[in-house]
Amino acid sequence: MAAVLTAPAVERWDAPKPRALPLVPLLLGGIALTYIAIFLVVPLAAVFYEGLSKGFAFYLEAIREPDALSAIWLTMIAAAIAVPLNLVFGVAAAWAIAKFDFRGKALLITLIDLPFAISPVISGLIYALIFGMQGWFGASLAANDWNVLFAVPGIVLATIFVTFPFVARELIPLMQAQGREEEEAAASLGAGAWHILSRVTLPNVKWGLLYGVILCNARAMGEFGAVSVVSGHISGMTNTLPLHIEILYNDYNFAGAFACASLLALLALVTLVIKTVIEMKYLKDERS
After folding, report:
1. How far apart are CA 172 and CA 99, in angstroms?
2. Closest C-alpha among 248, 231, 250 to residue 240
3. Which residue in 48, 136, 137, 234 is deepest, having the highest Cβ count within 10 Å?
4. What tens-digit pLDDT sequence spans the chain (288 residues)?
5. Residue whose C-alpha is closest to residue 168's, from 111, 224, 126, 234
């Protein structure tokens, strides 16, 4: 009997069919976008709309008004002093915490987080207790004609207090994730502390450092609670931009208040754009 040859069975392979997107991610994404639109986009658009409600000429007049210019200038001064000081402190604190072991490290970390736990108003009251006329140093300061409260020094001190965690808190996780191997290798080759910091440590955390500085500056220019306690609300002298906005709003000058508020909103938008650019640069460096 002749053998019957049969072709070997060929296993059939079907290409996977595209799966429809599940409903749950779409639903969650829709909820998130709706939330952002209601609580972020709409209020932000309302600020610019109300600021321009009386025309662009009134908008410029509200910003160029002497008290407004004084408030803008004082806000810039406070930020220009607070941000560099917090930059130096943040780099030093992050470097010490991430790269060295020493007694009191946990206490230092706790103190860095302190402004996040204390209300800004309470921090302003602390400075009033220390530097006020009935405070610890109030009498001696008054005897030497030195003004801290209701003057620029008090505003700068309050701004420094509420903003000093931002740079350190951005750098500490980055430095800890990178470890100590590169610094130890540089030290074994004879490099000094400053050389190690400037040539080894900081280049590895440059984007996080820049991001922390931007956040610190945004918070410094928008701080209200602590500054409100120590400023005294003296128009044209000790009012920062947020305090000037409050005064305009309480005087029912809504268009002027929103015109000045649009400057802070514009700062927030610029901060967001810079943050996005930094994140893109960071991801690009990570891939390369």
Report:
1. 9
2. 231
3. 48
4. 444 555 455 555 555 555 555 777 788 888 888 988 888 888 888 888 888 888 888 888 888 899 999 999 999 999 999 999 999 999 999 988 988 888 888 888 888 988 888 888 998 898 888 887 777 887 787 777 788 888 898 999 999 999 989 999 989 988 888 888 887 788 888 777 788 887 888 888 888 888 889 889 989 988 898 899 998 888 888 899 999 999 999 988 888 899 999 988 888 888 888 878 877 877 777 676
5. 111
Inter-residue contact 133 to 126 (CB < 8 Å)? no
- Amino acid identity of residue 16, one-letter, is P
Angle between the 241-250 and 254-287 helix axes, to the nearest 10 degrees?
A: 150
Distance CA 221, CA 229 (A): 16
- For residue 279, give both structure tokens: 């994140």
Closest CA to 214 of 259, 157, 158, 269: 269
* Cα 95 from Cα 124, distance rounded (Å): 29
**How many CB atoms lie under 10 A from the CB of residue 175?**
22
Cα→Cα distances 131→49, 74, 157, Å: 42, 20, 11
Amino acid identity of residue 231, one-letter, is S
